[in-house]
Backbone:
């Protein structure tokens, strides 16, 4: 088979050359972040899950899409994708090199729907879709003209994703989908939902699953917000009531949906290693601007968090190194997820100790009460993207070689 010329990498720039080029481009299209002010000015939001109304979420999504389209159209979007999808065929870790430069500029914060679309769903489409499907879906998703959410979790299944009950029944050239999904981020702004469905109830549960892409505005799709303890509603529940989905919107073979799902989950855990780093950095900055002298214990906590953030970034580089070597990270991704959730916990511990009562008193003072969003949101990430318990099971089985607990 002859390779597509657009899939063949051209000259890969030296990393420092690439970063310098990225800095020059960013300086021409965005303001330096420092121009927004130093400590004590600008937004003090440290929300883990945004506490927005639906209108605010839609408005922010539009602003972010405008930025993502700009960088995509000028060659800074789909860096590791072939040219036919708007990419540059660069190694995967060049996206991280770009993000390191972009962090110095005032650009829209990417909410969860953006990495889900481009770093989870698009790669799965690249692996499992037909050529017609790739031509139809990939460029719009990489450019963020179309966004995708995950219709995975269900109330009855919990962390056992293979236990899904949402049914898909064949009806000629279509499928009829009926079921209930929960914890869906971005459902109100998504164009597509990636739905994990039960297509054969009479075979072992991992073998009877098929994945579909569902239009979120299709008849029979109902999105309802789930109120969080922060007061916001970043998550949603999605009802599928006899939704008609064309067989051409099926992703992967019938009955092979578990393997398709694992492709998405693997990417989700790879991305989770960066969780909470911005807030950890902000907490260390808080320790550097205390309203009073720090105690020795507080200095130790701040130093510990600073070192943890460095180690977490190094773990992320190990994951990237595995990708560069052409292998799928396994243990590295699980270690990164566990480490990230612990970093988020320790960030909350340090902030609570530094701020004391000022943390819970909404006085309007910059960088105080805003931290309640982190404290209330961070525990959710011990569940999201594969629970901490699931990650420990993966490490126990795949690294330590421990046997699985027998089913009783």
Residues:
């Amino acid at each position: 088979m002859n390779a597509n010329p657009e899939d063949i990498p051209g000259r890969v720039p030296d990393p420092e050359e690439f970063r310098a080029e990225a800095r020059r481009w960013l300086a021409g299209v965005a303001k330096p972040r420092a121009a927004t002010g130093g400590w004590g000015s600008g937004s003090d939001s440290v929300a883990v899950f945004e506490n927005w109304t639906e209108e605010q979420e839609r408005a922010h999504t539009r602003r972010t899409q405008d930025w993502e389209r700009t960088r995509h159209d000028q060659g800074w979007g789909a860096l590791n994708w072939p040219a036919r999808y708007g990419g540059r065929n660069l190694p995967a870790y060049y996206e991280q090199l770009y993000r390191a430069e972009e962090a110095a500029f005032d650009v829209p914060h990417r909410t969860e729907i953006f990495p889900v679309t481009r770093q989870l769903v698009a790669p799965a489409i690249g692996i499992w879709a037909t050529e017609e499907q790739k031509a139809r879906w990939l460029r719009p998703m990489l450019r963020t003209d179309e966004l995708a959410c995950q219709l995975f979790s269900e109330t009855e299944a919990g962390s056992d994703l293979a236990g899904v009950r949402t049914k898909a029944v064949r009806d000629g050239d279509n499928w009829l989908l009926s079921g209930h999904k929960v914890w869906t981020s971005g459902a109100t702004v998504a164009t597509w939902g990636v739905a994990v469905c039960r297509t054969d109830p009479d075979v072992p549960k991992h073998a009877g699953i098929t994945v579909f892409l569902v239009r979120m505005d299709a008849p029979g799709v109902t999105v309802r917000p789930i109120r969080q303890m922060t007061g916001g509603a970043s998550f949603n529940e999605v009802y599928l009531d006899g939704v008609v989905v064309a067989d051409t919107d099926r992703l992967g073979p019938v009955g092979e949906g578990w393997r398709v799902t694992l492709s998405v989950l693997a990417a989700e855990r790879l991305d989770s290693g960066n969780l909470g780093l911005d807030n950890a950095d902000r907490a260390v900055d808080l320790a550097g601007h205390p309203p009073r002298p720090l105690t020795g214990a507080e200095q130790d906590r701040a130093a510990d968090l600073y070192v943890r953030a460095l180690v977490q970034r190094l773990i992320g580089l190990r994951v990237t190194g595995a990708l560069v070597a052409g292998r799928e990270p396994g243990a590295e991704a699980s270690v990164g997820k566990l480490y990230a959730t612990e970093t988020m916990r320790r960030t909350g511990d340090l902030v609570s100790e530094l701020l004391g009562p000022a943390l819970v008193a909404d006085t309007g003072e910059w960088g105080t009460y805003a931290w309640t969003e982190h404290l209330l949101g961070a525990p959710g990430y011990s569940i999201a993207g594969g629970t901490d318990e699931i990650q420990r099971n993966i490490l126990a089985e795949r690294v330590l070689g421990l046997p699985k607990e027998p089913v009783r």
In short: The mean pLDDT is 88. The first strand starts at residue 148 and ends at 151. The CA atoms of residues 156 and 164 lie 8 Å apart.
